[in-house]
Fold each of these.
Amino acid sequence: MSDVDSLAPLRAPSAQRPLLGMTVLAVEDSRYASEALRLMCLRSGARIRRADCLVSARRHLQVYRPSVVIIDLGLPDGSGVNLIADLDQARPRVGVILAISGDASAGVAALAAGADGFLPKPVESLGAFQQAVLRHLPPERCPVGPYGVSDEVVSPDPLAYRDDLEHVQSLMESGQSAAVLAYVAQFLSGVARAAGDRALAQAAEALTGHGSGAGIARVSGLIKARLAARMAI
């Protein structure tokens, strides 16, 4: 079943809503990053669905065929690169496949696997998001005539950041294996950078490779302090 070609003819995109009539599947485990993408899709006229892991994304793709798939490269159950490669080989192919990551160097592997483009995190510019999609669409799916590139900066709801912190806290309380700490390091450092939380981002990055007792305690303490501060507000 297609999200975009099913019951009614597509409405034409416009300069104000250049992605009107399209559906985006965001394969993203961060609620904060997902909220940013949701707001950008809303401003652009597109619908959005979310999958928070590879298993959920593959289940979704068995039923729906979105216009655009945006895939985070660091997911809890594996690398988004594998899903990109599968989607690039599938027929019919999804119209646009974009990779997203807080690690700029990861874009090379994503493009080699078949991604049409790469978005470095944090994705804040509405205009950059729209252009990343539009440059890979056929002319008939793009707005007719010239249109301005938006300079709007999208700011997700801080409550979404709280959700991500609670998720990490739960993971660390359930176990601190090497695999868990590696995931926490890449997930939390990216989310904290996007939220402008430099201290927590640096503490999370220090977990990479070893995760000493002192480093784990620092990350846990910073998360608890932020959650407590938000509860007090």
Amino acid sequence: MLRIDDADGVRTVTLDRPERRNALPPDLLDALEDAVADPPEPVVHLRGAGDAFCAGADLDAVSDVAVAVADGGDTDAAAAFAEQGQRVARTIADSSAVVLAGVDGAARGGGVELALACDLRVATDDATFAETGVTFGLLGAWGGTLRLPRIVGEGNAMDLALSGRSIDAEAALRMGLVSRVVERPAMVARDLAANDHAALAELKPLMRDRGADADREERETSAFATLVERNAEALRRD
């Protein structure tokens, strides 16, 4: 489900579930965390196989959480699922490498949130983005409420999160969700790796400011768990 290739200063990490549009079950999240935490290369290129970047959380996994809540009142399961995604997003943000999201195809929900955690986001003309949580009675609980307004501004973030609408690559570029629209994201990763590796390692933590992130993540987890409890029957997939 995860392919890793190390070459020429770039670790290419490919979400490889094209039949599920690279949706993320818990075991794939764990594998992704391991792949990006402390890689041997100075640059990581995160991409998706097939025609999607990442469809977000696997709906079967969300259903399993909903079943646990509906049948046993286990709200801890919902909180744990949110916290796992947040932990992976933090690992991306805190990785020793510069992490580039190369979005070619659809990024939805948790897929957008993983891209937001990356240091850079570039898109192809085929890329689309949507924070779809609200359409399921949920919210982006993998750092979406934290990073989206920081990156695109509060007004754009409210629009995307409250509507669940999809935007194309050019709209994403205009609002700053991506920094470039390119034909081959892999070439951007290669260009980054051509720079001085020590300088890259020093620049990244200086450009990051995680000041109040922990409090926001805790509030996000609580809100997600509450919504899963409220919508558990609708979310379960028996």
Amino acid sequence: MRGKDILWPTDFSDTASHALRYAVEMANLYKVGIRILHVVPRPMGDENFMILAITPDELAKSMEEAAAAKMKALLAGLHTELKIDTRIRQGDAIEEIVAEANSGEVGMVVIASHGYTGFAHFLHENVAEAVANQAHCPVLVVK
């Protein structure tokens, strides 16, 4: 754990922002940096059906640019002396977060849970639960 970054995956929601406070506190405690990760889902579509006016690659690029703008705004409001590393990936959120967590450069993951229960829990994929089960490092799940 010591000497390795804290990974904070974000979807830019209020719940994720709440978890950021914990990530900053843990990073200050262990005197390490924060690695911020946002995963852009791959767009689904087939150019042969001409449903999309733009190609899936163009849509993905647009989504990445929007995420980069949100990341820049987030960093502008983050007043800390900590080393901050930002990454935007494209793909499945669980796969990308777990890959980053298990890269050997991350000492802990601080991730938000939206706290769905009952039927809503079955309708929404629980990213925090999957990351906690698959990551090789400690995972702090924040509600």
